[in-house]
Design brief:
536 residues, disordered N terminus, alpha+beta, single chain, Rieske Iron-sulfur Protein, 11 helices, nine-stranded mixed β-sheet
């Protein structure tokens, strides 16, 4: 858990609530607000971390999987069911990172996507996407039943709603597209929220669960001694068969390798650092005495808002999410939590904030995940990535497709998710934006020198400063100790930016993140930052 954070901030975004006629402007808040809170995911806090062993010797397996989240563990289970000798190698602990920070909606309703998929990919591939995600819901149900996993699984309807009359037509077109693809969609004005939307699209037969209970339950079925290694970071994977996975502690040789490490860390194949960017979004968990929400919701409006209920030992907790932005955009991240909290106070008379956390999502150029061979010339190396904000079904789709490829089974959805696909119609704009963002970062690194110095840093603050003529990233903790690191990302050399809410150094180019002590939080980097000893 991050330590308590003290900050005075202004708000950069204006949020107007038309139902009550008030506005919240986080950067023109006339009174500075002092906040004290820690950020912790409910999924992490509500059950202990796993304790699988570290890799401490060299081993050989048929299939090695890099990443112990929902995708990696599900793939391992499916391959084990087929008699394959498989092991999972996780840099942290099972389901701790992305899986442990999701909103955990199990749904094929991925906001307003199907009308666009038909336009960009054609009817057949759009149908593959729809059928794959519907099949993922059923696969999760079967695995829960097969292994008797107690994970708070709850059938729910999933809604996309709008409070804007101008978006009604978009919703109606999306319903029409979904119905063409065989999805369980209909338009509705009856929803169960603390306000009355103008209209919405409903998918029936969807679900929600506790993602860590589910993934840890699956992990426990992989019961042979070399099944899972935790706190073992893979640093490189050799080309050729068998592959050799180089870790901090030992080597793993494997005939086939699957990379499910969120953002792929091998640059020489696949070019995923060009084909994706990352976004952060935020969730608060709150208790209220007002009537409970029924169903799972996401808005079609801007800013996006997301709702669902999670049953806890203290009663039903409302999970309110939103506030997406590109990772490492350089702005304060506290206002995103503040905006959600202010919105909660508009909706509820008595919100009691219990949890605050953020998550990071990999966004592919054309909004379809990359699943299959890592690249055209890597026959025995596979990848599952780019799940956007819909990782529960997308990760399960990846597990089903990749396990079928390894087992030489025909899979009906491989074409739409093909990792080497070319989709210029759907990708061109995002490709240009990604290139521009990376170029801007390099220019900033090369041409700017900070005007701040070590003496200018306040308690609880992190900044890039000039120290002895060099750029240094420094965080000053609440006891006054300085934590100094190189502010240059070890992935591809982009300049890092300080994330004040999570107290981390974040890369806007490809989403790598580091603790204030320089340790890796998020891939694609695998190397910690250089650290320095600096005293006032």
């Amino acid at each position: 858990m991050y330590e308590n954070i003290y900050i005075r901030y202004n708000i950069v975004q204006k949020v107007t609530d038309k139902r009550k006629g008030d506005a919240f402007t986080i950067d023109t808040f006339n009174q500075s607000v002092e906040k004290k809170f820690d950020t912790q995911s409910y999924w992490i806090d509500s059950m202990p971390l796993t304790c699988f062993p570290k890799l401490e010797s060299n081993i050989h397996v048929d299939v090695a999987i890099v990443g112990g989240g929902l995708c990696g563990i599900t793939t391992a289970v499916l391959l084990k069911q087929a008699g394959i000798d498989v092991c999972v190698i996780e840099a942290k602990t099972v389901a701790q990172r992305t899986t442990g920070h999701t909103s955990a909606k199990i749904t094929s309703q991925h906001n307003l996507i199907y009308n666009t998929l038909i336009s960009n990919f054609g009817m057949e591939k759009a149908r593959q996407y729809a059928e794959a995600n519907q099949a993922a819901i059923e696969k999760i149900k079967r695995l829960i039943n097969k292994y008797n996993i107690d994970c708070d699984f709850s059938p729910q309807n999933a809604y996309v709603y709008t409070e804007n009359e101008n978006n009604i037509t978009k919703l109606e077109k999306e319903v029409e597209a979904a119905l063409k693809l065989g999805l369980p969609a209909h338009f509705t004005t009856q929803m169960y929220l603390p306000f009355s939307p103008k209209g919405g699209m409903c998918f029936t037969g969807q679900a929600q669960f506790h993602p860590r209970k589910y993934v840890v339950g699956l992990a426990k079925t992989l019961d042979h001694p070399n099944a899972i290694f935790e706190k073992t970071r893979v640093l490189d994977i050799s080309e050729g068969t068998p592959h050799t996975l180089i870790t901090e502690n030992g080597k793993v040789t494997a005939n086939q390798v699957i990379v499910t490490s969120h953002f792929p860390f091998i640059n020489r194949n696949g070019l995923y650092f060009i084909k994706m960017h990352t976004e952060r979004s935020y969730i608060i968990g709150l208790h209220t005495k007002q009537p409970r929400i029924q169903g799972m919701y996401i808005s079609a409006d801007n800013p996006t808002r997301s709702f669902r209920i999670q049953r806890t030992s203290e009663g039903d907790m409302v999970m309110l999410g939103g506030e997406s932005h590109r990772t490492g955009n350089g702005k304060s991240t506290f206002p995103h939590y503040a905006a959600l909290e202010h919105y909660a106070k508009i909706l509820y008379k008595d919100p009691r904030i219990l949890y605050r956390w953020s998550t990071q999502d990999c966004i592919p150029l054309d909004n379809v995940p990359y699943i299959g061979h890592y690249s055209d010339n890597t026959e025995t190396l596979y990848v599952g990535t780019g799940f956007k904000k819909w990782g529960m079904t997308s990760a399960t789709v990846a597990a089903m497709i990749i396990s079928d490829l390894i087992l030489k089974k025909e899979n009906p959805w491989v074409d739409v998710f093909n990792s080497s696909r070319a989709t210029p119609k759907a990708s061109a704009t995002q490709f240009v934006m990604q290139g521009a963002a990376v170029t801007a970062n390099y220019v900033t690194r090369a041409l700017t020198l900070p005007t701040k110095h070590v003496e200018d840093i306040s308690y609880g603050e992190g900044k890039i400063v000039t120290h002895e003529g060099e750029k240094v990233g420094i965080y000053k903790d609440n006891e006054g100790k300085l934590h100094a690191v190189s502010p240059i990302c070890t992935h591809m050399g982009c300049q890092l930016k300080w994330n004040d809410a999570e107290k981390s150094w974040d890369c806007s180019c490809h989403g790598s993140r580091f603790t204030y002590q320089g340790d890796v939080i998020e891939s694609p980097t695998v190397k910690a930052l250089e650290t320095y000893d600096i005293e006032l």
